Every structure is written in structure tokens, then in C-alpha cells.
């Protein structure tokens, strides 16, 4: 299998991961596409005559994508803060005026929950739960030790559980009546 | 101290490893036994499993992803550029090595020729290595300094 074939195989997986990481959604995400494009456009680093293949290539690509994403976040080139994306999502719960409850899709709720996580926790959770990397591989991608990865996973899961609990509370809450009334 | 034969207690990290299939058979059995005894931990594990499933389900399989334009031509160009860079680097290394080798060869050759010339000279053959002040400083003779400049030098050198 040539490098091109391997990268063509990996590109959709990378894109899907980038969408989850950047936007929290599987739909078309321009920022994620830009990130994947940047990662694939840069030559792979390695010693003379060495070219990563198979799992090594996969780990190398994901590692680079995460590095680029962090770098861009730091620079603020792509977006100032990930959490600004939360504003564009339709979350569950009543409207501000309490007039009608908004129905949020499970995808939107999940996206909001993912974006609500810290970046490190989100990376760890998506690598393990979404991409199916082993702990050792995920730790290599994130350049951390295995225990640190497990602690990030634990934090991510706890935060997701908390978000889900709060989300359920909001969803089950009755819409409150508006305090502003029109008096004729 | 833990009694012999009793398995170590299950830690939270192991619950995560259990959910993600990272445990070996022995610890997996231990965790399953623990979960059977602890409804709270069992609920947590079930919740984490649901989270994993929700994350997997939220992202469609590969064939359903609308892949954006990925410049694989650019990618190949990038790899070609890397190869060119390596080639340039190798050429530069070879050039510098060659220059160093040539420089060393010239120095060694000149030293050898100088030694040969020194051995061929009458002084060299006689084993004399001392040079008279007049040979070192023109204007100085065995009789004494002749010019003003050579007198000054001779004074400085206490000759």
C-alpha cells in the first residue's frame, strides 16, 4: 500500500475526529476540514529512509492533528474560544422568556456536552471512545503517561455525567411563566 | 498488609479500563465480582458505557462522511519537498566534509614538505635549531644593532 493509499484511507477518519474535537458534531465543519488539510499538507517527519506506516502513521497523524489544533487555539487564528460554539447550539430547556420549550436533538446535546469539556479531557475521551485507540496508543498521541490519560478520562466522564444530569434536569423542568405581562 | 490469597481492591482506574476493554482476564473477573457487589459502581460503569455508545453513534461511519477537499497533490508535493530538502542537506554535508578533508590534506602536506625542507638544509642536517638574532630581526648583526629601529628592538629585548 502506497503512502497516498494509506492517507486516503486515514483522511476520512481524521476528518471525523477533527469534527468531533473542534465542533463536537459530525456534520460538515469548515474548521475541522481546514485542520485536516493543514495536517495532510505538511510532510511527515522522520529519519532518513523511515516512513511511518500502519498504526505508526495513524498515531503520527492524530498526534499532529492534536498539536495543530492546540497551536491554533493558542494563536486564536481559528477561533478565540471553543466555548463560543456553544452559543450556536440549540440546547434543551425552556426559552429565556419561558414561553416555549426548545427541543434539542441528542446530537446537539452531545455536541454541547463535548464542547463543555476541557480540551485535554475531550481529546482523551474521543481518542479512546470514538477512535478506539488503546490507552497506550492514546497516551503516545497525547504525549502523556497512561495514568494521566486515565485521570483525564475519569474527569471527562464525570463532567459528561454531570452535564447529562443537569441537562436532564433542564429538560424535565416546566417552562416558567413570563413575568412581563401586557396590561390593557 | 493484605492477606495472602485475597485480591487487591478494585480502583476507579480499573473501572475505566474495564469499560474500555483494557483489563486482563484476571482483573476483569475481579472487577465483575466487585460490580456485582456494588450497585453504585455498576451504575457508573453502565453510564460510562452509554456515554461511549452515544459518542460512537453520534459520528457516522466512514462512508457517510462528506470528506472535504484534501489536497493529496499538495501532500505528495510536501513529501517531495522533504526529499529535496534531505538531498540538499546530504549534498551540503558531503561538501563540508570534502572541504574539511581537503584542508586537512593540504595542512599535512605542507607540514611534511616543511619538515623535509628543514631536514635537507645544512642547519637541519647539523641538528641546529637556534637562529641568530640577525635571522629573526633584520638589522641586527652579531656586532650589535645598526639601525635606530633595530637598536630600539634590541633594547626592548635586552640584547
List the helices and strands and how they pair.
The complex is a heterodimer of chains A (184) and B (159).
Chain A: H1 3-22, H2 30-41, H3 54-75, E1 93-94, E2 101-102, H4 106-116, H5 119-130, H6 135-142, H7 146-172
Antiparallel strand pairs in A: 1-2
Helix pairs in contact in A: 1-2, 1-3, 2-3, 3-6, 4-7, 5-6, 5-7, 6-7
Chain B: H1 12-19, H2 25-37, H3 39-58, H4 72-120, H5 122-126, H6 133-136, E1 140-141, E2 144-145, H7 148-156
Antiparallel strand pairs in B: 1-2
Helix pairs in contact in B: 1-3, 2-3
What does this structure look like?
The complex is a heterodimer of chains A (184) and B (159). Chain A has 184 residues and is mainly alpha-helical. Chain A has one domain (3-172): PhyR, sigma-like (SL) domain (Butyryl-CoA Dehydrogenase, subunit A, domain 3). In chain A, 61% of the residues lie in helices and 2% in strands. Chain A contains 7 helices and 2 strands, in the order αααββαααα. Chain A has a two-stranded antiparallel ribbon. In chain A, strand 1 (93-94) and strand 2 form a beta hairpin. Chain A is globular and about 50 Å long. Chain A starts with a helix and ends in a 12-residue tail after the last helix. In chain B, strand 1 (140-141) and strand 2 form a beta hairpin. A two-stranded antiparallel sheet of chain B has the order 1-2. Residues 73-78 of chain B have low confidence and may be disordered. In chain B, helix 1 (12-19) crosses helix 3 and helix 2 (25-37) packs across helix 3 (39-58). Chain B is mainly α. The longest helix of chain B has 49 residues, at 72-120. Chain B has helices at residues 12-19, 25-37, 39-58, 72-120, 122-126, 133-136, 148-156, and strands spanning 140-141, 144-145. Chain B has a domain at 12-61. Chain B is built from 7 helices and 2 strands, in the order H-H-H-H-H-H-E-E-H. Classes of the chains: A mainly alpha (184), B mainly alpha (159). The A-B interface holds A 3-4, 7-8, 11-13, 15-16, 19-20, 25-26, 28, 33, 36-37, 40-44, 48, 106-107, 110-111, 114, 125-126, 128-130, 134-135, 147, 150-151, 153-154, 157, 160-161, 164 and B 12-13, 16-17, 20, 22, 44, 47-48, 51-52, 54-56, 58-60, 62, 65-72, 74-76, 78-79, 81-82, 86.
Amino acid at each position: 500500500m502506497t503512502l497516498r493509499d494509506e492517507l486516503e484511507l486515514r483522511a476520512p477518519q481524521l476528518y471525523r475526529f477533527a469534527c468531533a474535537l473542534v465542533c463536537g458534531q459530525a456534520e460538515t465543519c469548515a474548521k475541522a476540514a481546514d485542520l485536516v488539510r493543514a495536517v495532510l499538507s505538511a510532510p511527515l517527519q522522520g529519519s532518513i529512509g523511515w516512513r511511518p506506516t500502519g498504526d505508526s502513521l495513524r498515531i503520527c497523524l492524530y498526534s499532529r492533528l492534536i498539536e495543530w489544533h492546540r497551536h491554533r487555539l493558542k494563536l486564536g487564528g481559528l477561533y478565540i474560544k471553543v466555548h463560543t460554539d456553544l452559543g450556536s447550539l440549540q440546547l434543551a430547556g425552556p426559552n429565556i422568556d419561558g414561553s416555549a420549550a426548545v427541543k434539542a436533538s441528542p446530537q446537539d446535546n452531545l455536541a454541547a456536552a463535548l464542547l463543555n469539556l476541557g480540551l485535554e479531557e475531550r481529546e482523551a475521551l474521543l481518542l479512546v471512545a470514538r477512535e478506539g485507540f488503546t490507552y497506550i496508543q492514546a497516551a503516545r498521541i497525547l504525549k502523556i503517561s497512561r495514568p494521566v490519560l486515565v485521570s483525564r478520562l475519569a474527569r471527562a466522564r464525570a463532567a459528561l455525567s454531570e452535564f447529562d444530569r443537569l441537562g436532564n434536569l433542564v429538560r424535565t423542568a416546566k417552562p416558567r411563566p413570563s413575568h412581563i405581562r401586557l396590561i390593557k | 498488609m493484605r492477606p495472602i490469597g485475597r485480591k487487591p481492591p478494585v480502583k476507579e482506574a480499573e473501572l475505566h479500563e474495564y469499560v474500555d476493554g483494557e483489563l486482563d482476564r484476571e482483573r476483569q473477573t475481579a472487577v465483575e465480582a466487585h460490580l456485582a457487589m456494588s450497585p453504585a459502581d455498576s451504575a457508573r460503569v453502565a453510564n460510562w458505557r452509554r456515554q461511549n455508545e452515544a459518542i460512537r453513534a453520534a459520528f457516522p461511519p466512514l462512508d457517510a462522511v462528506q470528506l472535504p477537499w484534501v489536497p493529496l497533490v499538495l501532500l505528495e508535493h510536501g513529501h517531495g519537498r522533504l526529499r529535496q530538502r534531505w538531498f540538499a542537506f546530504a549534498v551540503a554535508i558531503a561538501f563540508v566534509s570534502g572541504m574539511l578533508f581537503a584542508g586537512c590534506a593540504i595542512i599535512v602536506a605542507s607540514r611534511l614538505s616543511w619538515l623535509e625542507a628543514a631536514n635537507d638544509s645544512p642547519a637541519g642536517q647539523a641538528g641546529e635549531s637556534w637562529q641568530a638574532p640577525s635571522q629573526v630581526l633584520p638589522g641586527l648583526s652579531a656586532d650589535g644593532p645598526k639601525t635606530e629601529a633595530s637598536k630600539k628592538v634590541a633594547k626592548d629585548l635586552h640584547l
